[in-house]
Amino acid sequence: MKDEKIYDARISKEEIENLKDTIRALYLADDIPWVIGYSGGKDSTATLQLVWMSLKEMNPERLKKPVHIINTDTLVESPIISKWVEHSLEIMQNSANDQNLPFITHRLTPETNNTFWVNLIGRGYPFPRKKLRWCTDRLKIQPVNNFIKNKIVEHGEIILVIGTRKAESTNRARTMAKYEKLRVRELLSPNPTLANELVFSPLENWKDDDVWIFLMQYKNPWGLSNHELQTLYMSATEDNECPMMVDKDLPSCGKSRFGCWVCTMVEKDKSMEAMIANDQEKEWMSSLLEFRNEFGNEEGDRERRSFRRMKGNLQGNYGKLFHGPYKKEVREQWLERLLSIQKDINENGPKEFRSLELIRLEELQAIRRIWVNDKHEFDDVLPRIYERVLGKAFVDPTWLHNENFQAEEWDILKKVCSEMYPDEELAFEMMYTLIDVENKASDVNQRKNILDDINKTLAKTFYKDETDATEYYSNMMVRKKENGGKYNEKFLDYQPLETEFEDNEDE
User: Fold this and answer.
1) Cβ atoms within 10 A of the Cβ of 329, count?
2) What pLDDT sits at residue 171?
3) How far is the C-alpha of 18 from the C-alpha of 62, rounded, in Å?
4) How confident is the model over 280-324, as pLDDT tens digits?
5) Has residue 123 got a pLDDT over 60?
6) Whether 432 contacts 376, CB under 8 Å
7) Of 36, 60, 217, 280, whose CB neighbour count within 10 A is largest?
8) Which domains, from first to last, does the chain contain?
9) pTM of the predicted protein model
10) From CA 116, how far away is CA 358, in angstroms rounded?
11) d(Cα 227, Cα 219) in Å, to the nearest integer?
């Protein structure tokens, strides 16, 4: 009886043939170009394979419109998966050309100013978490949306083909069911965030096992092995097994999570942990896992961050201030750690990863500009960290900076401030910021807003320490309350359990 239930759950050959007919009909229905999202995982592979098989069986003369295959490289993908995807896209494009199919591959990346390291190490954004999920939009959504918007401008409309399935989660099922009701054409749902984009999900009713059965029974049409993909999933499970259609109570390979190796939205990166545990040749990734666990550790994270928000203002709840960006010394330590890991992999890692860049030169250049220009850290320490770790000169041909004050002056100022104001936590920051503001405004044409800049600096840095800042903020809220003004009620009126406090509500 149990076997019959299992058999009924399997995707049938007839269903697959019907789905291929549907794909062909949708393709021929209009001139709207298609965009297929490809992550390298099982769902996107199965989706692309279905479309590929469907078009390959058509008369070549009818393949008039392009099908764009897009992959988003966040620049912090799991190196193993990133290498697999890079190789896959290359094979795909060559195979599409050889088979005269209208597929065009694209690898999208976030803008340099929006990468993970530029935000974490450069700006000092707290690591992503439940109430501060700044990474997904910047690293994944924006590059895709920019690509799609350009195609919409070019063609007026596009159809996005993705491998989302209702079985992935209750929330996913609920969302897909909602947009089913809004369908403007058969099987095509509107995108809630982008006008003139229709979404087609051919696998919407498939289970994990359906996906694997399809991939194992149908040969990959662009020439890669789906068994290699299965091996990747197997390596990312704790028991190194990929049970399919054996026992419905067993977990499927589909539960393995492939994504960014820096991801802190999950408590533990079980997929990477399993990869390392299951394969001795992947032990070189242990340093990545250790670093991720280090900067993603909630314990003691408040102490690593300034008690002011990103713009220098005070904000808080329940008698405590929200903490903002990471302090200068923390950002520098993490950069040095990241470069050291990269150097070790380049020198001692597997051959195919000897040229791996954990952080690109363009990102380092962007971080340098944030530190020196935006944060007024005129000691310009980044090139020295780079040269100390990697043993070579830092290349930055477009760098323009007033070098009246550098590391030597920085050290002198720091010493003077620590001697004269040993209890003033922000005295040094106030001084180096004021000096840098004045230095940058030395030209007559640049002095227009200097008084505003000075006032802003003083407003951000006149607190003695966090206790002093908390008292100041509390008194300000009390005065607003007494005068009938709008004030932060949560800060004054309610004292919660320690676990209720959240200090990550905005950037």
Assistant:
1) 9
2) 63
3) 19
4) 888 999 999 999 999 999 999 999 999 999 999 999 999 999 999
5) yes
6) yes
7) 36
8) 2-227 (3.40.50.620)
9) 0.88
10) 11
11) 10
